[in-house]
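@channel anyone free to eyeball this complex?
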Amino acid sequence: MSIPDLNTIKSAAKRIKPYIHNTPVLRCAGINEITGGDIFFKCENMQKAGAFKSRGACNAVFSLTADQLKKGVGTHSSGNHAQALARAASLRNTDAYIVMPETSPRVKVAGVKGYGGKITFCKPTLQAREETLQRIIEDTGALEIHPYNNYRIIAGQATAALEMLEEMGKTDIIMVPVGGGGLLSGTALTTKYLLPGTRVIAAEPEMADDAYRSFYEGRLIPSNNPKTIADGLLTSLGSLTYPIIREYVDDIVTVSEEGIIKAMRLIWERMKIVIEPSSAVPLAAVLENKIDIKGKTVGIILSGGNVDLDGLPWLEKE
Amino acid sequence: MSIPDLNTIKSAAKRIKPYIHNTPVLRCAGINEITGGDIFFKCENMQKAGAFKSRGACNAVFSLTADQLKKGVGTHSSGNHAQALARAASLRNTDAYIVMPETSPRVKVAGVKGYGGKITFCKPTLQAREETLQRIIEDTGALEIHPYNNYRIIAGQATAALEMLEEMGKTDIIMVPVGGGGLLSGTALTTKYLLPGTRVIAAEPEMADDAYRSFYEGRLIPSNNPKTIADGLLTSLGSLTYPIIREYVDDIVTVSEEGIIKAMRLIWERMKIVIEPSSAVPLAAVLENKIDIKGKTVGIILSGGNVDLDGLPWLEKE
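replying in thread with the prediction:
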């Protein structure tokens, strides 16, 4: 495997088509008026299992033979990749071994169980997660499917931008949030293959700014104790995603926690859709004037919609 | 004016097309699995001003000449018709005089103000609302646009089913919530004109069941102290909507308050869209087994999405 080319991304799109949604692309006159741009929102919050992660997980799992899948697949994840992988595995009638920190949100644990995933809980540290997964893989012979540091995952995530650009035709800017960099690297590849003149800009919480620092210091710097309401963006860039991002992404900007909550609420109120905090990070960057989109066409990928409806951020006590 | 025929409804659709959204029709595999039916949800929560009411208000206002509109339009409403009328009036550069009860939700008052509506507050009784509107109309010469007891409004609301049926081709059942009956009577007309074999079923809160009682007792019975979380459905059928409903609607069923909240939350969680309680009433009827949709195709109009995000019903103290 090497960095996915356009044919690989198109093959991924064809492979996963029966198992995912071609999600709607929505516009909002009210938000355009506020920002001065013309924003097209790709609604991956409405994707199967509630996030773009279903694209990569389906591409990885459906690329494997029945024989390779015989002993199942495994990953450690507290979030959307866990649900997406459990779902993809169930579609291929194989087991998904999911290592989750014992602090994982109830709603995400329920999601994984709902898709038949076999959960092992562990302490909420990266070391405990990796050790526990390693032990399970040795015991079961399952194949590890990493949430982002995997070219098949990257090619799968790249299909969201492929659909969006097919619908938009062209655009001045594409924006996505960045955590481990699977969505960002895939989006950057698709965009630069199809529309080399389009700017690819990532947005990241200030409180988890490893991608920003890595991008501008020119070396891979892992997150140091990240803490953000955007729970999908706590992870650090990987050895496969970082080089793609360094080469193909035009800019990375950071946003405040307050900005994320404000943008999230604006999207709920004006667009009448449910997004999780991570999805709001690109619009937060626009609202905080980190990016000027006046008079420009912008595609934003809303990454997911898995949010605990019992604990909305604007209702939390300070 | 008489009961709108198919040509009148098609003319309304053409008239309002530049000013409203052809809203998305969404399906949800998870909800289909729970209900055993194949449901198509028409997302009027994503309509301009957040509800189907923009259809009727635009049709009424754009049917009038500049001369007729010179002195503005007026209505009393605590809800979505107020916002929709204020928006339609602003598109025609005329005034909208809106009488609102002083207890109206802050978010709806802000919506009316946002569209430039001129608000007069009054005591929260029907008498105070009607008297206040009467006085304003006498003072200003504005034309009253009733929220539902008006054939132009009914023809406008009928265009939601027109779009949905164009997209669906055919369907076994169409379901909508019923308050004053504008959406229901319009939907029934469109459906019986185009697909006479399709069943039209209305759902109503038990706690505001005037339409149910009127339908089954065969005479117009006004609401008696209605009280429901579905704040769009507190009104009673009108003298123009009731006869259409009696003739063209196949059934009206009622649902519990708990059922409405449960259905609302299910739609938020699974479909990742924001709907107001009134929109959840038809699905609540299915979940409470008031209607059997197993193996059937069903169109449901989600009437609106204007909900106060600071006070979600499942977070309320008992």
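from a first look: Chain B has two domains: 6-51+157-315, 54-144.
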